[in-house]
Specification:
The protein is α/β, with parallel strands linked by helices. It starts with 7 loop residues before the first strand and ends with a helix. Helix 7 (248-255) links the parallel strand 12 (232-236) and strand 13. Helix content is 34%, strand content 17%. It has helices spanning 13-16, 104-116, 131-142, 162-173, 189-202, 218-227, 248-255, 269-273, 281-287, 292-301, 316-323, 333-345; strands spanning 8-10, 23-27, 31-34, 57-58, 63-66, 72-75, 81-84, 121-123, 149-154, 178-183, 205-211, 232-236, 258-262, 308-309. The radius of gyration is 19 Å and the shape is globular. It has one domain (8-345): TIM Barrel (Alpha-Beta Barrel).
Length: 346
């Protein structure tokens, strides 16, 4: 993926039911003018329809700015600019299938919908089985490499295997340069960060980072955010799992780190909580929510420290549906608390 000084992307109005195409984000060396953001996403192990009622700046050397959904102007100290949607795509479980699986065609439609909507960041890991291979195969077939912001991880208990695993990821993604590679769940982080720094120096990896999930290892991650030079962190944050608000998200803002959010729906558990329940009227009238997925995603992306959230989906219609979460109004700080209190009461 090329890093350009100025990028202007457009929302696909047919997919979202919007009257006119609107610039997603316009970045220059000093200013960011955002007109409409958008979101993609997902589900997990449930049929989500059965429970529905109806990048701030990323100083990753070349900074990534998330698109805001309303016409606002924000001054940035950019070295170069890159516009990415605030919602990316995860691949845990959903893309771990053989290349001859009948479901491959459905995964292709998911990616087509993702890129048609201007999607960029796709996250994977060697831990996710065949996901990297499937993603690389489909993206190459779609000719979508220029639209991709690739992010994967090193995940091996053997330090000596790190360089080989990274080399394999390049091969599986068909990407000589990977955009962002992280140490998965801090496993052997000392050794793997050395490997990633060498790759970054060599130009085969653009940005490097660290990840946790399920709310684990927050103290270790906080310590490393203070002591290590990285570009991004990935962690769990959603409307019920808010521990990261206390220390990690403020620290990320202080350090100028990109923040990527995993497990936005607790692998579908949050939909179980609202099964058979309608959205509150105020979420519809004031935020324009049409589904619980929009409600949950709007809560996450409205936190000022969050740059991208990466739920996973098997279905293109769910991908398109969730994109609506990034259009229209994002909740204010007061509205976010109202949303959280309401959800906790269910």
């Amino acid at each position: 993926m090329r890093i350009n000084v100025k990028i202007c992307r457009y929302l696909p109005t047919k997919a979202l039911g919007i009257q006119d195409d609107a610039p997603l984000a316009l970045l220059s060396y000093q200013k960011l003018t955002c007109h409409r953001g958008y979101v993609v996403q997902t589900i997990n192990m449930l049929n989500r329809r059965s429970v529905m009622s109806g990048l701030a700046t990323l100083p990753l050397t070349a900074q990534i700015a998330r698109a805001e959904p309303s016409p606002q102007r924000r001054r940035l100290a950019l070295k170069s600019g890159l516009a990415l949607p605030v919602i990316g795509m995860g691949t845990w479980l959903t893309f771990n299938i053989p290349l001859d699986d009948p479901e491959l065609a459905a995964r292709k439609t998911v990616l087509e919908a993702f890129f048609r909507a201007g999607g960029g960041m796709i996250d994977s890991s060697p831990m996710y089985g065949k996901s990297e291979k499937v993603i690389g195969h489909l993206i190459k077939g779609l000719g979508a490499q220029e639209k991709l912001f690739s992010t994967t991880k090193i995940w091996t208990p053997l330090a000596s295997n790190g360089p080989n695993q990274l080399a394999q990821s390049h091969e599986l993604w068909h990407e000589p340069t990977l955009d962002l590679v992280k140490v998965h769940n801090l496993l052997r982080w000392q050794e793997h960060l050395k490997t990633l720094r060498s790759a970054k120096d060599a130009g085969t990896v653009r940005y490097i980072g660290l990840t946790t999930s399920h709310g684990r290892r927050h103290e270790t991650l906080e310590s490393l955010m203070r002591s290590e030079v990285v570009d991004a962190v990935q962690l769990t944050y959603n409307i019920l799992d808010r521990e990261a608000e206390k220390r990690l998200l403020p620290l990320a803002e202080e350090k100028g780190l990109a923040v990527i959010i995993n497990r936005p729906f607790r692998t579908g558990q949050l939909f179980e909580r609202v099964q058979g329940k309608d959205l509150p009227d105020w979420a519809v009238s004031e935020l324009g929510c049409q589904s619980w997925a929009e409600y949950l995603l709007k809560f996450i992306i409205s936190h000022p420290a969050v740059h991208c959230v990466i739920p996973a989906t098997r279905r293109a219609d769910h991908m398109i549906e969730n994109m609506r979460a990034g259009t229209g109004t994002l909740p204010s700080a007061d509205m976010r608390e109202k949303m959280a209190r309401y959800f906790e009461s269910l």
